[in-house]
């Protein structure tokens, strides 16, 4: 990538330059309405375009100077805008050709607002690398980023010593959604956050947590301008925020529908602790083999999600198309073993998901195995009252009734703090022939 003044960024091609592609022209025009004084902003451009074999999916990233509004707690900042996740050309070179009625390309572009430091005369270019990294993820996975999404980065965004190591997504407060010749494009803004803030957004939901952040002085203001020098979390800036998050989870439930985990299970009861490493598999040794088709079908199903009988938000999954993956096998008992990090989520899973009629999945981090916890109101599950523990291939479903959820909530309450927890730690419910063991991370 290289930074230079944008060619024809006013919306009109410069002398001696080819016509600006129609999709790009529409996005440039939207930016020009906001930044009429900056018709030719600095741009970071891909040296070799993606459709010619280059590594960077974004053709351009424009960098605008935004004066903000101190009276509204909006700091002066640099505003970065990507071009390339949507269809800029409309000729099939990058994205499938679409009409104006369907989203253009992936249907969105990324933006980022970085607080301007007093001594800065030009925008730092490191945000462009972050945006290219996110774009590569989107192109490789096909997963789009939406308002309310979160991204675990596990590294200061600018490679400094900053606490800002992760990202939330929100609708850009100025650009919103733009109509283009190839369909609508939404501008999704990256918001840099601390680990504690990411965790809260994951456990509750991104949109609601972003709304909380917007009203905390010092957290970025209503436009959530990222300050890489911010040393305090929103919970330190305003201790009442934690209570608001807890109450939100209690009242609205959690949007976190699954996590990766190190897991194994068996039908043995009373339970015998046996790690995945010892058994040589993530599942019990007598688990039937699973075909490539079945593996892909599980991934598709988990990605699409099961349908709760009473979806509580627009972000809830749309449902499961019931299809036989393999012959369903009922288990007489179940002993589930998980790594500690995944297991510590059980209090959240019980009160934020299952008590609200929603499912939760632990997906193996090393193979296609998965364990989904469901309740009777979940539609499309193959676990039911007659066979509460049921397997299809390497997918285990566990049906939990309301009274069992209440019992588990009491038994596992200590996981809310996890202080002084000795591992392995096994919880048993003998009358249900069910046990859950939490194992050290290294096993």
UniProtKB/TrEMBL annotation:
Residues 54-230 form the Suppressor of fused-like domain. Residues 275-294 are annotated as: Disordered. Residues 276-292 have a biased composition (Polar residues). Residues 244-437 form the Suppressor of fused C-terminal domain. It comes from the Eukaryota. GO terms for cellular component: cytoplasm; nucleus. InterPro entries: SUFU-like_domain, SUFU_C, SUFU_C_sf, SUFU_N, Suppressor_of_fused, Suppressor_of_fused_euk. Pfam families: SUFU, SUFU_C. PANTHER family: SUPPRESSOR OF FUSED, SUPPRESSOR OF FUSED HOMOLOG. This is Putative suppressor of fused ovary overexpressed.
């Amino acid at each position: 990538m290289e930074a230079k003044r944008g060619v024809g960024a006013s919306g009109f091609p410069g002398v001696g330059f080819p016509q600006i592609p129609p999709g790009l022209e529409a996005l440039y025009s939207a930016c020009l309405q906001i930044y009429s004084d900056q018709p030719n902003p600095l741009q970071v451009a891909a040296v070799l375009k993606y459709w010619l074999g280059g590594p960077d999916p974004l053709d351009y990233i424009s960098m605008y100077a935004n004066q903000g509004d101190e009276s509204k707690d909006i700091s002066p900042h640099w505003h970065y805008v990507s071009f390339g996740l949507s269809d800029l050309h409309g000729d099939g070179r990058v994205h499938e050709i679409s009409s104006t009625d369907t989203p253009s390309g992936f249907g969105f572009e990324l933006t980022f607002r970085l607080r301007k430091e007093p001594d800065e005369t030009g925008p730092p270019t490191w945000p462009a690398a972050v945006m290219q990294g996110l774009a590569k993820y989107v192109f490789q996975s096909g997963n789009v980023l939406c308002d309310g999404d979160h991204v675990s980065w596990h590294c200061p965004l600018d490679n400094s010593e900053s606490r800002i190591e992760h990202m939330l997504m929100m609708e850009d407060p100025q650009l919103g959604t733009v109509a283009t010749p190839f369909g609508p494009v939404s501008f999704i803004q990256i918001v840099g956050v601390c680990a504690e803030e990411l965790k809260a957004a994951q456990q509750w939901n991104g949109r609601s947590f972003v709304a909380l952040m917007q009203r905390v002085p010092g957290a970025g203001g209503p436009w959530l301008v990222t300050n890489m020098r911010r040393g305090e979390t929103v919970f330190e800036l305003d201790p009442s925020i934690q209570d608001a998050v807890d109450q939100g989870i209690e009242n609205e439930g959690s949007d976190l529908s699954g996590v990766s985990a190190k897991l194994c299970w068996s039908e043995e009861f009373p339970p015998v602790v046996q790690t995945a490493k010892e058994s040589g598999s993530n599942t019990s040794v007598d688990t039937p083999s699973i075909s490539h088709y079945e593996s892909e079908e599980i991934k598709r199903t988990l990605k699409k999600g099961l349908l709760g009988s009473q979806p509580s938000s627009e972000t809830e999954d749309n449902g499961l198309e019931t299809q036989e993956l393999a012959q369903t096998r009922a288990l007489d008992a179940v002993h589930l073993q998980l790594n500690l990090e995944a297991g510590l989520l059980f209090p959240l899973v019980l009160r934020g998901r299952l008590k609200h009629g929603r499912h939760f999945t632990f997906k193996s981090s090393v193979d296609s195995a998965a364990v989904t916890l469901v309740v009777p109101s979940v539609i499309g599950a193959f676990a039911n009252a007659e066979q509460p523990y049921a397997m299809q291939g390497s997918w285990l479903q566990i049906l939990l009734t309301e009274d069992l959820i209440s019992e588990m909530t009491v038994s596992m309450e200590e996981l809310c703090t996890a202080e002084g927890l000795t591992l392995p730690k096994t919880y048993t419910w003998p009358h249900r022939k069910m046990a859950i063991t939490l194992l050290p991370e290294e096993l």
